[in-house]
């Protein structure tokens, strides 16, 4: 085996290992949610709610829609991928949904609540840390801390082992 093929194999093993780590998956889902958020915000502001908001208006409706769609996107992918091993599986022949709609709604509510807590935490930490460092660095540190908080809240509460 050539050195290049060996290096490629090692890289693939490393990538598989990283993808198996729940926090990395959570981060990848979060990144996809950011893309969804930006796309929905743009489409909502430029096309869907243009007459509502006007050319100089603030994008209230577009932003609310973008946050809602991104939250549902992230919840769905985290449920299907990040914490898939914790979602109770029932036999598909029985035609029974793994979770009753009420439980799914409760889980979505818990996920949204954890996300909003993380957003608040990021906001407060950024403002607090910006007193002693550059605001951009403060924001990055706050994002990392809030991300860990979101992850732990969802790991221990929303998608806890049953």
Integer-rounded radius of gyration: 20 Å
How many individual β-strands?
0
- Unreliable spans: 90-94
Number of separate domains: 2
Helix content: over 70%
Number of helices: 6
Strand content: under 5%
Structural class comes to: mainly alpha
Rounded average pLDDT: 84
The H-and-E topology, N to C, reads as: HHHHHH
Largest beta-sheet details: none
Basic shape: globular
Distance between the termini: 46 Å
Structural key phrases:
162 residues, mainly alpha, globular
Characterise the protein shown here.
This protein is mostly helical and 162 residues long. The chain folds into two domains: 1-85, no CATH class; 96-162. 77% of the residues lie in helices and 0% in strands. The chain is built from six helices and no strands. The protein has helices at residues 3-19, 22-48, 50-53, 60-82, 101-129, 135-158. Helix 2 (22-48) packs antiparallel against helix 4 and helix 5 runs antiparallel to helix 6. It starts with a helix and ends with a helix. The relative contact order is 0.10.
Secondary-structure topology with pairs:
Elements: H1 3-19, H2 22-48, H3 50-53, H4 60-82, H5 101-129, H6 135-158
Helix pairs in contact: 2-4, 5-6
